[in-house]
Amino acid sequence: MLKTKAVVISTIILGVALTATGCGNKGNVDETKVKASESFVNIIKENKKEIGFHAELSHWGLKLPTGEKFEWTKDTSANEIDFAMVVPADQFTKAGVDVTKIDSKELVFKPAANEGGMETPNLLIKPYNLNDKKQNSNGAEDAFKRLLKVQEVPVSYDANSKSYALNLAEGYRVNWTEKLGENPSDIIFTLKAEPLIKAGLDINKISGEGWAYSKENNTLVKEFKVSENK
User: Fold this and answer.
1) What domain of life is recorded for the organism (predicted)?
2) In whole angstroms, what is the distance from residue 52 CA to residue 61 CA?
């Protein structure tokens, strides 16, 4: 099982590096966006119980099995966060991270709070802003489709791992499978490790939370299986 995960992670890292330099095998950029949108919308449809809406941020979100979330905005003019990787922070603080030492240009720490009567834990967030244009949308699926039609959206396809990648910044990425059940993982989060290591992260301790460290790329990778949530 560990060998399988290692192969998948290595393939994702290599494949996205290739697509980031323009070596895609899935036709033109517009076609890639359309198919990426279709694949993720299918994930939404198959995991409706895990989809939520954050009214204050105008965000839709897919909750992953261990508490992480992938979020996307209903309206790009609502705020400066159009996509976000949201990760429970306590697993990192237990592994040595001092959140006051994290570069806020890399990751944003959000302390636990009560939002609309709902308790949220300490969080680490990687935000991404596409633009600030007004965008009307109707529901989680429609919102995601509209976002992937935006010219600036950084989406690529990796034929090796049969997944799509949304690049939020250098070292930060969300991958989702082209087809549910086809890959060992349906969603993969990649975080740049350097800011967390500088803030005190012990790589050996965080590996117990499902994060695999790639020394070559200096990234942390975590895989999720959402097709089993149904």
Assistant:
1) Bacteria
2) 5
What's the average model confidence in pLDDT over 130-150? 92
Closest CA to 29 of 158, 156, 146: 156
pLDDT reported for residue 86: 98
Strand pairing partners for 59?
54, 73
Q: Which two tokens stand for residue 22?
A: 């323009």
The per-residue DSSP string of the chain comes to -HHHHHHHHHHHHHHHHHHHTT--SSSSHHHHHHHHHHHHHHHHHHTGGGEEEETTTTEEEEE-TTS-EEEEES-TTS-S-SEEEEEESHHHHTTT--GGGS-TTT-EEE--EEETTEEE--EEEEEE----------HHHHHHHHHTTSTT--EEEETTTTEEEEEEETTEEEEEESSTTSSS-SEEEEEESHHHHHTT--HHHHGGGTPEEETTTTEEEEEE--TT--
Q: Highest mean pLDDT: which of 13-27, 60-74, 126-140?
A: 60-74
